Structures are given as structure tokens and as C-alpha cells.
Amino acid sequence: MAVYQIVQVDAFTDKPFAGNPAAVCILTAWRDDTWLQHVAAEMNLSETAFLVRRSGGDFDLRWFTPTTEVALCGHATLASAHVLWSYQILEPDREARFHTKSGLLTAVKDGSWISMDFPAEPDIRVAMPDVLVQALGTVPTYCGKNRLDYLVEVSSEEEVRNLRPDLGLLSTLDCRGVIVTARAKTSGVDFVSRFFAPAAGVPEDPVTGSAHCCLGPYWKRRLRKDKMTGYQASARGGTVGVEVEGERVKLTGQAVTVMEARMLAGA
């Protein structure tokens, strides 16, 4: 009987029980999609990452929420790179290279920090859906959309932190999720955000790397800065370094291993 190791990692944090938890499972060959989805549902985290090593040393990488596969995920990629280096699957000075539904993603290690190279996902301004206003319970000052999500800006950091959206209404929108953001008042932070994706099985994601692929270009326009620090103000909270370089965004964070498991059932 095959036995698979699953590692749970808290991403975008330097301490356990903060940031965003992700499960990482390294396979010797791909299993069918139903099996992958069952494992992700069993883990019941916002994302479970599955990796298969290629002959040249790169990895194929896929991400699943408890209910669906997604096209891009930052924190589970950070967790995957952390596992590869922590378990000496890759040497610390070797770049991690992941082939995904969003193209080639890379990560490099610098001490306890990991920097990832992701595609920018800029939004374009769109008319604000009435259901979005109703779901948020407030009228945003801006509404945009990219291929994945809606992005809305509200008037203050306090409004972001205090938001209690109607998740049922948000799940009716034609998108993966909704990013809510505002300029930060917190010292050392440029902007704050929260991310809701009930339609993808994630009511609120604690720290969302892929959302910062949109937040980076957006706040670059607003603040006229290439390099910024974002704070995702969920209950767990997490910090994401963001640097916009043309059509790419560098996301920087830390990660902590919190759990190891051997999966037997369904193997």
C-alpha cells in the first residue's frame, strides 16, 4: 500500500498558528483528480498543494481548495518551496521551479525569507455590481476586476478590519473571490486587505498571495511605489512583501512547518 507524507505549513508568518495554513503533498506520479480533491477536502484547509517532480528537477504543481481546483495560489506555493528546502529535496541555494496553470513560478531562499516570482494580475475598472455593494454592506470608493477576482477599495483600514460581508451573496458573483483593500494607517505597512472566496469553498482566506498579484499593481498606481508591504487583516493575519516589476510581481514571506502526517486511507 502506498503511503504519502503530508506536511502542514503556516505561510506568510514567522510563528505557528498565524498566517495561512496549507498542506503540501509530494507525489511520485499524478493521481486522478477525484483523489486529489478528496485529499484536499479531508485536509479542509484553504489550499492543498500537490507536487510531482519532473526529470529535470522542476516540479509540476496544482492547488485545490476543499471544493475545487484553482489556477493560482501564493501561500501554498510558498509552503511548497519551504517544504522542498526544509526536507532537503532541494539544496538551499537552488531555485524552486513550479509548472502550473498560471505558467512557470519560481522561488528563491534568502535566510528565513522566501521570494516568489509570480505573474502580475492587474485589474481594470468595472461597474460595481449591486449585489457586491449589498453583500459588503458599504459602498466602495473603487471597483475593479481581473481574470480571477473583484477588487474593491474602501475608505479606511478600520472599514477593512470591521467588514462582515454576506458570504451567501458574495458566492453568487461571477469570480473566484473578492479582494477588499484600503490604504494602511498601521506603521510600516502600505496597504491592508482581506479576501473572501465562498464560491471556491473558502469563506475568508487568511493570507492570499495571489490576491497580492492584483494588489501590487493597483497600489503601485495609487502610491507610485514599486516596492510595498501589505498586511492581510484576517483573524490570523499575515504580512506579504510586494515588488512590481513590469508584468511580474515578487512576493516575499516566511513559513513555518507545524504538522507532519502519513496518509494511509485511499492510497
Question: Can you describe this structure in just a few lines?
Answer:
By secondary structure, the protein is α+β, with helices and mostly antiparallel strands.
Written overview of the protein:
- The chain is α+β, with helices and mostly antiparallel strands and 267 residues long.
- The chain folds into two domains: 4-109 and 254-263, Roll (Diaminopimelate Epimerase, Chain A, domain 1), CATH 3.10.310; 124-246, Diaminopimelate Epimerase, Chain A, domain 1 (Roll).
- The protein contains six helices and 18 strands.
- It has an 18-stranded mixed β-sheet that branches.
- The radius of gyration is 18 Å and the shape is globular.
- The mean pLDDT is 96.
In the predicted model, the low-confidence regions spanning at least 5 consecutive residues are none
Mean pLDDT: 96
CATH superfamily of the largest domain: Diaminopimelate Epimerase, Chain A, domain 1
Tell how many strands the DSSP assignment holds: 18
| Approximate shape | globular
Which helices and strands appear, and what pairs or packs with what?
Layout: E1 4-11, E2 20-27, H1 33-43, E3 47-53, E4 59-64, E5 69-70, H2 75-86, E6 96-100, E7 103-110, E8 113-119, E9 124-125, H3 130-136, E10 142-145, E11 149-153, H4 157-162, H5 167-170, E12 177-183, E13 191-197, E14 202-205, H6 212-223, E15 227-232, E16 238-245, E17 248-253, E18 255-263
Parallel strand pairs: 2-3, 4-6, 11-12, 13-15
Antiparallel strand pairs: 1-2, 1-18, 3-4, 4-5, 6-7, 7-8, 8-17, 9-10, 10-11, 12-13, 13-14, 15-16, 16-17
